[in-house]
Amino acid sequence: MTFWSFKDENRETPQKPTGLLAEDKHTATLAAIQKYSKPAQKGLQDLTIDYDVNRSTRICLAVLPEWDPSFPPYNIAKLASAVKRAGYACKSFDINVDAAWRYEKEKWDIEFNPWDPLRDWHWYKDPYYKDIHPHLEPIMLEYVERIVEFKPDVIGFSLYYCNEEPTKWMAFELRKRLPNIKIIVGGPATHASYYKGEDVYDYVVNGEGEQPLLLMLASIENKKQIEYTEQGTSKIIRQPEEQRYNLSTLPFPDYSDFDFSKYKFPNGALLEISRGCIAKCTFCEETHFWKYRQRTALSTINEVEHMYYEHGTNVFWFIDSLVNGNLNELRAFVKGVAEKELDIHWTGYCRCDGRMDAEFFKDLRAGGCEVLNYGIESGSQPVLDLMDKKVTVEEMEANFRDGHAAGIQAMTNWIVGFPNEGPKELEDTFTFLWRMRNFGITNIAQGTGFSVGVDTIVGQNFDKFNLLPFYYYDHWMTKDMRMSIVHKLIRMKSFSIFTDFLQTDLICSKPTRHNLAKKHYKIVFNDPNRLNNDLEYDYDEFDYNIIKPGISNFADSLVNEIWPFLRMLWRTRSGYKLQLLFKKEWEYEEWGARNAAPLNATYNFEIDDNGNWNANFDWDYQQDQYTNWEDKYWIENGHQKMAVDPWSPVWAIMDFTRDNSNAAIRSRKLAWKGDDTKKHLNPESAWDRELFKRNEREFLSLRNLDLSFKYKWQGNGKWDK
User: Fold this and answer.
1) Does 326 fall in a domain?
2) Residue 527 CB partners (closer than 8 Å, separation 6+)
């Protein structure tokens, strides 16, 4: 049985205990959690409104299609409960779930499932308007009429990276019908410090939403001033750091406008026990958004109990960045659930932690934990250390083994192609996966290709991670050119194919992209049933640079990129024949423009059980030229104006009018490279920025380095087990 088996369309709402039975359960719960739970963190405030007025402002909250609607939108429900408690009239709309229903019912003529998370680039502007919008537009127009009928003064949209286009389109339509309406957006897509908003948005919430939304509503009624930052055409609102509120004081989510029967889990709901993250992984921007806060265990238990008896909900997915950020509160929560005898099933994201022993996992299981979704990232200790994961490979293995022994399954997430991850480290990851394949792995999430985020530790320390400056997002490259988006692409495909052949003792979802196995590769094993179950640790020395063409650091490392995958496949499955194809058009189709690369390559490889191999490789790499960097910014009235372009260097997407933005400050430091000769210059000065601009152009020229090459190679050899 997997976590997905717990959905129940016919579940009846259980009867809530009353009288002495309820009192006894409550008393037992308090006693069970007392040992572990602590009071709320100091310095936090209750979410309150400190003025008393008649509420006349009306607000709608909506979410456009983003991803597969398994649960009602928790963020919208939380915001609705906050504004309703403050006395505002509020109506919520989940357009996402309605559109997904229509897609299934009407059989839209689209070659792919728009809600497939592995195809999210189809929601980018051009493909969206070509393939999806014609089907979605009539639905959105229906909702425009429903929203207009409510006569709102404010419309709030939850903005994700894959629903920006339909959200913007609908906002423009509402503006036509309601010229005076205030449009506010928030959500993951607005968290980034460089997000500038759109012409149609009046306000953008950067970070948490409850307090900024309430302040914005108050300002509309001219009852309270709001502090915001002018940025382009939108006003940026942030939760004041000194006004962080106690999560335990938030009201329960308001689901009154949602039909649970429409969701994949009609008996399910999202839940949070904390916000933020205790870790500072070098690849992650999480700590830039908010600081870690933990609800009390009792607060979380009360919400679960409310959903359990009011809505019949017994399946919960924790949306926390880390459900185990506070081990004591998590333990108190599951102890309380067990005492309440709430028959629930839950999962959540977590990190491996050496403090989680066998007894801890037993408590989690007794408190309803079915699956833990681990952020593994890598099976190599050097890479884990570079990521600052603060965990050892041995501790991760212990978590897998103890969790599996307690009956808890594992979902895993991985990062492929981290800077300074070499071939040996990649094979270490394969080896780890192989060792752990029979310890409850139910899902291996597609290996995420590493990207350099603006507000990450990597993005602020290029030298430490051997990166060329100003190659942000997916188009980064190491200084020695031994790691790039092209290397990452080959590793991502290798990771996907290898995980197809793990053969776990539970059903493992296939992480490979659509049609990947059909046309991208073909593998024939000499003995399909032969497995090397004895493969544990491997510290042997192996020269992964088998081919030594002497073209360039980039080409030499690229043509050897495949060997960890080929070798590991043989070590685990013995003899085989393989044909692996990279076609530029296929790669962009399968991986999207931000993870693909203009690579045409053919790998033909054959090896017998004894390690005798023959290879025939053919590469044709023709680099896409980046030429569209002109006119990305200009000086106007002494202020720098910039176009939002995720492919340009960091300062070309930073808003320098946001002087107090930590990200802006850090980006300036990066831009000036810490050069002592430039310390007297002022990045806010129009003239100095012109010098700055000239300096930038030198670095932009790196984008036009032509790394293209063609190469053919044949070879043979013998490997030892």
Assistant:
1) no
2) 574, 575, 609
